[in-house]
Amino acid sequence: MNESYNSSKAQLRFHPMALAVALTIVGTATSHAAELATTPAADAPVQQIEVTGIRASKQKSLEKKRHADGVTEVISAEDVGKMPDKNVADALQKLPGVVTTAGSGGGNGYDENDRVSMRGTSPSLALTTINGHSVATADWDPSDMLSNGGASRSVSFLLLPSEIVSQVIVHKSAQADQLEGGVSGAIDILTRRPLEFKKPFTAEIGLQGVYSDLSGKTNPQLNALFNWKNETGNAGVMLQVFDQKRQIRRDSQQMTWGVISPTSAAGKANGGQLAGAYYASGITQQLFQQERHRSGAVVDAEFKVNNDLTLNLNGFHSKLKAEYLMNNFVVRPGNSIAGGVVPTNVTLANGVLTNARFDNTGNATGAQIETYSNPSAASQTNFLNGDFKYRASENLRFTGQVGKTKADSDAYLYANYAFLPNTSTGYSYSGAGSPLQLSLPNGVNAANLTASPGNSGADDSYALQHSADKESYGNVDGEYRFEDSWLSAIKAGVRHSDHERAGTRPLKGGPAVNAANNGATAITTLPGYGGTVYPGDFGNNLGGLGTGGLPLLTSDQVVSWSNANLPTNPSYNLPVSGVFKVKEKVDSGYLMARFEGEHWRGDVGLRLVRTKVSVTTNTGVPCGVPSATNGITYGSPAQASACAAFVPAGATLTTGSRFGNFYTMTTDSSYTNKLPSANLALDVREDVVVRLSAAKVMSRPDYSALGATFSGFAYNVANPVPSTATGGNPKLAPVVAKNYNAGVEWYFKPRSLLSAQLFYIDFESLIGSGTSTQVLLNTAIPASLGGPALVPTVVNSPVSTKGVSKGIELGYEQPVWGSFGVQANYSYVDAKEANGLPMLGSSKNAYTAGAYFENDQFSARLVYSYRSASRNGLFGLSQSYSAATGTLAASVNYIVNDKLTLTFEGLNLNNPKLRVYNAASATIPFENSSAFYSSGRQFYLGLRYKF
Prior knowledge:
This protein is mainly beta. The strands form four sheets. The protein has a 31-stranded mixed β-sheet that branches. It has a five-stranded mixed β-sheet with strand order 1-6-7-4-5. β30 (735-746) and β31 (753-778) form a beta hairpin.
């Protein structure tokens, strides 16, 4: 390979093969077009053929792409359910330069795509809109709701079923009239509008049953569409509803690695044979079971008041109920080693303990059962949008939108820990590519379950979490079109939005406060065990995990026990960390000129954006801790008095929580961005388009980067800056980059395309890990040094860094022999941060290959999508990666008559296994797996009926 990146010169060197492919397309296409130009035109009349189904969708998509000014990809869906995908992300992953993940920051290994990223960047850097306006988003996973988790700006596509789609337009180059927020690109989902339908009345219904082979359960799915427009075609109403339920089971194994200390009993035994050996310090066999129930509707009313004015009102609601039960059976060889156990039956290979048995006794906890039940997990989103189109004169037009969008999510997470002390455990290791084989030499006796945690710690609890995301917006655009001029139009517009995102934790119930109100009572009971065990085929898709029939607690057992034993008391059970609120007021305006000649077109413009940010977070303070000796009790005046000196001006103190006292403070900031852009499309031949584009683009920081709770305060006078802490960065600058594109598209036959796109994204500001200096109240400064005091503090926090993402995207599609067709694309991405590490979520290689068959009665489609390894971020002291993975999907449609069609779809047909691993580090100097996931296959059988 000949790719390199020099941060000082920002050089771009593409692989010679990539440039050769692009030049070959231009040369071959030009030659082919020249041949066509010398062919005499036929005098016979042209036969008009109506193309439907898969071919119609492809034709419509290519026409939209071909005539665009900028670099775009287009997906069209002609009928309800015609897209061979279950949500919009499933369809997007088939486009060049687009990859998907099955979870946000807190989830992985699920069976449905959730997030979309473009061109080697994180999902947060790709903007998603619906009909050109913002859409609020929310996540069902508790770890994605708060600032100390995965609270991001990326949209959850779990809430967006594919049936709502008319078209999806992916903008890879920016224009001044597009909403800012997408550095890598923008995804605009267009829904249907009533006056677009051909008939006065349209009614369609789709019914399916979905079978998930790992859960062994079947569930119903429904979508229906009703559209009416009057005879004159100037008023119409559309209603679309969906109700889709399915069962998920995910089997996984997760593990951690450690080093046997030379001073431990294991390290000293047998002449120090195991001293310094690397071993699996923790092993978790995880069974995740969930019911997902997605329901909602799209409603649209459109009125063509006269030939000059059209009004439209569009509403959308989607709710995902996602209750789940997660059972962990955990063994901790690390606790065994710390408890003095010397492993037996050991095998060492290259310094790695590949086989061992731990006969746990004394204070060494042998095994642990962890149960996490979330019966109220849910997320939802909705919007109400009004827009207008007005033709003031033959040349002057105005458009506008006004609306609100809101999303929220809830979690009521019950956590319970039961222990199996003195249980013998063991494992064998055959390499990083395979799960560990766990053994329980003497079996497991659930009668020995105890609430005593040994030396592993526990926190039986139930936690209520809530996330809310909302925005109100309005914009007006005007365009003046010129006649008989190379300057075809001038366009200008203004937009205002008020955005707010918040993550709250109203309570985390746990052990009751004692009678003296200065401590907690002990928990000595357990939920009743009813004999339930793991499925007999648990882990089979992962190659077998060595255990079966492990004991587990059910959701009902844990919930009923928690409600009876863990009182609420909100003030006592009020958590400190992860709570945040981010408010943003954004004003923007733009001016853009469109140009057009006989064989070229383009635009140039400038967008100006002003963002005012307000970030509210909590910070814990080490004061007023209740005890039997200091007379301080929870929520007492004495507790508030003891903490008064720890609260900076403008902050609000909260006391009385078992998690500690804290203050809440708001930080304000603002920034202005000038975003120029230019696009040029050259029709070098009738069937060849060459594109060039350049733009400055921006995305705002993730909420977790802005609002993470400050903690870990320390003060060491020996350091150049004595004051240190960990937390967010409420004044973090936005992500800013320069986005360049150059490409060629050859439309060599009807519904056919061969294309190549080169891209280069130069990040002037990219969010990375580092340190920032912030003026904070350091509560760790001793009184003898004037503490606590407001001082400059070096914070381990997200910071602005630099980086480059560059690559090439190749695309090909064509009808071939008879009724067959093929489609394929490939993308190569070299995306690196300034420190040389790959950008988060970046896959160097990705491709999709598919084929379809379609005649008047039958159609079938088969698609395989692949992405190479991608970086997840830090896991402990090591960089974590998701290994290469691919998925196979298929769809079959049989037209019984002009009203009834039978359908079949299969997802994840290759039964993919996801592996997560850690790169070699100073702590563990070899690649080691940290998790394996499998969610099985899904089969959909159903029908579509047109009334």
